[in-house]
Automatic annotation (TrEMBL), chain A:
ATP-binding recorded as keyword: no
Lineage per the UniProt record: Bacteria, Bacillati, Bacillota, Bacilli, Bacillales
Keywords, sorted A to Z: Coiled coil
Superkingdom to which the source organism belongs: Bacteria
Domain UVR as annotated: residue spans: 138-173
Coiled coil: 134-161
Name used for this protein in its record: UvrB/UvrC motif-containing protein
From TrEMBL, chain B:
Protein name listed in UniProt: Protein-arginine kinase
Binding site for ATP: 27-31, 92, 126, 177-181, 208-213
UniProt keyword annotations, A-Z: Allosteric enzyme, ATP-binding, Kinase, Nucleotide-binding, Transferase
SUPFAM superfamilies in UniProt: Glutamine synthetase/guanido kinase
Length: 182, 359
C-alpha cells in the first residue's frame, strides 16, 4: 500500500481515527507520519485511537498490542500518581500528562530517550537560575558531608568543625532559596 | 488599502533581507520549550490550569519589565477570527497546532515580531525568536534572556537528570529547536539535493521543504534543524547546526558559480522568463509563483536583475499564501479566485519595484 499523503513511499503506519462516530483510516509512510505527527498524535481528543503510531516512531516493540492476554494474568499497570496517565496511554498518545510522568516511567523511558537522542539520556545544557541555584548548593552540601565523614574518621576534629559550619551556612542558604522560590 | 500599506503592515522584520549571508539564509529561528511545574501538561490539563498558565504570562507581559524588544502584546486564540490565525501561521509566528487545535491557546508578540511566545500549545510555553539572515547565536541569546526573565517568577518543570521536561520526549533536555530557512536554487538546479539531504540527516539534522506538501520544497526553500535536544548543550547544538549550514552555504555558492560558467545564457533566460511571468501573469498557482519567485531571487543574487529588492522572495512567498490573499481581498476566496488575486498582487508588487527604479 502506498502512503496516502505523498503517494510515493510505501505506507508503514496504519491506524484508525474515530471522530464523531465516523471511522477514518490512515496509511502513512514514516516520513509523512512524522511530519503529520502533531495532527495525529494530538492528545486528549475523545474517541481517538491510534494503533502503534508512537511505537512505530520510536521503534519500540509494540508489546501492548499482544493479542488478548489472559485477564487474570495481566501485568501490573504502570501509572503516574500525579496525573493518572498510564504508560500505555503515553505510548499511544506520544505525550506525557505531567512533569511527574518522567519519574513515574523513568525506567522505561531511558531506552526511549536514548533511541530518540542518539544514545543520550542525560541533560547537558542550561540549568534554570533559581531552581538551578539550589541544585548547585545541594551538590556542594553532599560533597561536604562526605568530607565531614572522612575528617571524623581520621579524627581531624578541628577540620570537621569547620566543615560542619560550612554545611550549616549552605543549608541556611538552601532553605532561604527554597522558601523564596515558593 | 493600498498594496504598499498592506505590505508594510504584513511584513515582519525577519522577512527583510538585511541579515548576514542573506543571499542564501532567509531566516534563523530558535525555539525553547518550557513547562510550568505545578500544572499538568496541555495534553491533560484542566481548563482552570490552562487559564492559570495564560494568567501567569499575562502578568509578566503587563509588567513590561522586558524592554529590549519593545511592547509585548498578548493575543488569545479564542478571540481571533480564523483568518487572523491563519495569517499569523503563514508568518510563522504561531504553529498550525496552536491556530487550530489548542484550547486556551494564546501568543505573545513583540512589536517587530522577532519574538513570539506560544502559550498552551504542545507545551505551556514555547519561546520563539525569528531573525533575518544567518543569526542563530543572536537569536539564542535573546531567547535565553526571555527565558531567564520568565523564570524569575515561574517555576519551570526541570529535572536534574533529563533537563527541561516537555510534553513530548523528542524535546526533553534543552527544549531547543534551532533552525534556518535556506534558499538553495543552485543545489536544486544542479540536482545535488538528493545527495545532500541524506548526508545532513546522518549528522543528526533534519532537512525538509517548508512550502508545499510531502517531499516537495516549493520555491527551493528548505528548513534545516537539529533533531536531538538531549545530551548536548544549547551552544553545541547551535554551533553544530551552524557549521553544517556554513558548508551548505559554500556548496550553494559553488553550485551557482558552476551554473554561471556552464549555462550562463540558459540561466539568464530562465531568470528573465520568470521575471516576465511574475510581471505579466493574470492567473498563477502557488507552485508556479514559488518557482518564478525563486528564479527571480536567484537572478537578483547573481546580478542578472538589478535594482530589485531581495525581499521580494521572502515577502511574496508569505503574502501569496491563501490567508494573506484573503485578508488583502477582504473576504473569502475560492481557489480559482485566489490564483487571480495572487497574480494581481504579484504584478502590483513588481510594479512597485519598477516605480522605485524609475523615480
Ligand atoms: Zn508519505
Ligand atoms: Zn503524570
Amino acid at each position: 500500500m502506498i502512503c496516502q499523503e505523498c503517494n510515493q513511499r510505501p505506507a508503514a503506519l496504519h491506524f484508525t481515527k474515530i471522530l464523531n462516530g465516523e471511522k477514518a483510516e490512515f496509511h502513512l509512510c514514516d516520513k509523512c507520519a512524522q511530519e503529520k505527527g502533531d495532527m495525529f498524535m494530538l492528545g486528549g481528543a475523545p474517541g481517538f485511537s491510534i494503533h502503534n503510531l508512537l511505537a512505530g516512531l520510536l521503534n519500540i516493540e509494540p508489546t501492548f498490542q499482544k493479542t488478548k492476554q489472559d485477564p487474570f494474568q495481566q501485568e501490573e499497570i504502570l501509572q503516574c500518581v500525579k496525573c493518572s496517565m498510564t504508560f500505555q496511554q503515553f505510548i499511544k498518545v506520544g505525550r506525557f500528562g505531567c512533569a511527574h510522568c518522567y519519574q513515574a516511567f523513568e525506567e522505561q523511558l531511558i531506552p526511549i530517550l536514548k533511541r530518540l537522542h542518539s544514545g543520550n539520556s542525560a541533560h547537558n545544557g542550561k540549568i534554570p537560575t533559581r531552581i538551578g541555584g539550589s541544585i548547585h548548593l545541594r551538590k556542594n552540601i553532599e560533597e561536604l558531608k562526605q568530607k565531614l565523614k572522612e575528617s571524623i574518621a581520621k579524627e581531624e576534629f578541628e577540620r570537621a568543625a569547620e566543615i560542619r559550619d560550612e554545611i550549616r551556612l549552605l543549608d541556611s542558604k538552601l532553605k532561604a532559596k527554597d522558601e523564596g522560590g515558593e | 488599502m493600498s498594496l504598499e500599506r498592506f505590505i508594510n503592515q504584513a511584513v515582519s522584520s525577519w522577512m527583510s533581507a538585511d541579515g548576514p549571508d542573506s543571499d542564501i539564509i532567509l531566516s534563523s529561528r530558535i525555539r525553547l520549550a518550557r513547562n510550568i511545574k505545578q500544572y499538568k501538561f496541555p495534553t491533560l490539563f484542566t481548563n482552570d490550569e490552562a487559564k492559570s498558565v495564560i494568567h501567569m504570562i499575562k502578568k509578566k507581559v503587563e509588567e513590561k519589565s522586558f524592554s529590549t524588544l519593545g511592547n509585548l502584546e498578548l493575543l488569545l486564540m479564542d478571540e481571533l477570527q480564523p483568518l487572523q490565525k491563519r495569517v499569523l501561521m503563514e508568518k510563522h509566528l504561531i504553529s498550525p497546532h496552536l491556530a487550530e487545535n489548542s484550547s486556551h491557546g494564546a501568543c505573545v508578540l513583540s512589536e517587530n515580531e522577532e519574538l513570539s511566545i506560544m502559550i498552551n500549545e504542545e507545551d505551556h510555553i514555547r519561546i520563539q525568536c525569528l531573525f533575518p539572515g544567518f543569526q542563530l547565536s543572536e537569536a539564542l541569546n535573546i531567547a535565553n534572556e526571555i527565558d531567564d526573565w520568565l523564570e524569575k517568577e515561574i517555576d519551570y518543570a526541570f529535572d536534574e537528570k533529563v533537563g527541561y521536561l516537555t510534553s513530548c520526549p523528542t524535546n526533553v533536555g534543552t527544549g531547543l529547536r534551532a533552525s534556518v530557512m535556506v534558499h538553495l536554487p543552485g543545489l536544486v538546479l544542479t540536482q545535488q539535493m538528493n545527495r545532500i539531504i541524506p548526508a545532513i540527516n546522518q549528522l543528526g539534522l533534519v532537512v525538509r521543504g517548508i512550502y508545499g506538501e510531502g517531499s516537495e520544497a516549493l520555491g527551493n526553500i528548505f528548513q534545516v534543524s537539529n533533531q536531538i535536544t538531549l545530551g548536548k548543550s544549547e551552544k553545541d547544538i547551535v554551533e553544530d547546526l551552524k557549521s553544517v549550514v556554513s558548508q551548505l552555504i559554500s556548496q550553494e555558492r559553488s553550485a551557482r558559480e558552476a551554473l554561471a560558467k556552464t549555462s550562463n545564457i540558459q540561466l539568464e533566460d530562465r531568470v528573465f522568463r520568470s521575471y516576465g511571468i511574475l510581471s505579466n501573469c493574470r492567473i498563477i498557482e502557488s507552485k508556479e509563483a514559488a518557482r518564478c519567485l525563486s528564479d527571480v531571487r536567484l537572478g537578483i543574487d547573481m546580478q542578472y536583475l538589478k535594482n530589485i529588492s531581495k525581499n521580494i522572495l521572502n515577502e511574496l512567498m508569505i503574502l501569496t499564501q491563501p490567508g494573506f490573499l484573503q485578508q488583502y481581498a477582504g473576504g473569502p476566496l475560492r481557489p480559482h479566485e485566489r490564483d487571480i488575486r495572487r497574480a494581481s498582487l504579484i504584478r502590483e508588487r513588481m510594479k512597485m519595484e519598477n516605480e522605485e527604479i524609475g523615480g
